[in-house]
Amino acid sequence: MQVKKVVNTVKKSFISLDPPPEPSSVVVVKRKYSSLARDLNYKKRVTWFDMSPELPVAVVEYIGSYPTNTNVHGNAKHISAPYRRTTTQQKTAIRKGWKNNKSPKEIREGGEQSKS
Q1: Cβ proximity of 116 and 107 under 8 Å
Q2: Which of 72, 85, 103, 111 has its CB 3.0 to 4.6 Å from that of 76, i.e. a possible disulfide?
Q3: Torsion angles phi and psi, residue 98, rounded to 5
Q4: Strand partners, 16
């Protein structure tokens, strides 16, 4: 059995608590910090308390304002439009087009002709 020493941390000095508190009365506070890659002034801080798994408690704080500018996606060098995911309707049309032996150009244009 591992024995843990309970201490109170004050400016990097450890003060032993005597007698140690009951484990059920100890609250552990954890934090995670992150910032947005395209704007380092927009930051997020998540603070949560490890009290019990039945009662999860977290506080999410955002510092700064969300940037309105958009960046190009990935390795794009000559595109100024922001990245957009393929919609579900487009994916369905692509699947149907490949099943009907259509070329990529026909699928994009919505043509009804199949490859010969």
Answers
A1: no
A2: 72
A3: -70, -35
A4: 7
